Amino acid sequence: MGLIQTDVAGLLALAAHCEAQAGRIAAISTASAATDGFQPSALAVQAAHAEVAAAGTRLAARMTATAVAASTPAGNYGASDTTNAAEITAVGTVVV
Predict the structure, then answer these.
(1) What is the CA radius of gyration of the chain?
(2) DSSP for the chain, written as a single string
(3) Does residue 2 belong to any structural domain of this protein?
(4) Residue 18 falls in which region: left (phi positive, over 0), alpha (psi -120 to 50) or beta
(5) What is the per-residue pLDDT across 15-65, written as a single tens digit (0 to 9) for each?
(6) CA-based, 20 to 30 A from 37: which of 6, 19, 59, 95?
(7) Inside any domain, residue 1
(8) How many domains does one find in the chain?
């Protein structure tokens, strides 16, 4: 697999997009099941709705985890870049 080149802004954009999508997925609700739950088909529909709702919950959680996984290194990269820039600047100002 090839290398992926990114920067802090790209990671933060990915994190924001994933978080927004997680919110959209979490807001989706399944249709109300038929009130007549005695028919086998109604029970099947209720079971299918429950599975869809559970899948939506899992997907939203996965998107949120991806957002965290992108934003955490972005903060670390930003701090590292700032520290490295300060250290490089300090090297240039040392008088012997």
Answers:
(1) 24
(2) -------HHHHHHHHHHHHHHHHHHHH--PPPPPS-TTSHHHHHHHHHHHHHHHHHHHHHHHHHHHHHHHHHHHHHHHHHHHHHHHHHHHHHH---
(3) no
(4) alpha
(5) 999 999 999 998 887 766 655 666 778 888 888 888 998 999 999 999 999
(6) 59
(7) no
(8) 1
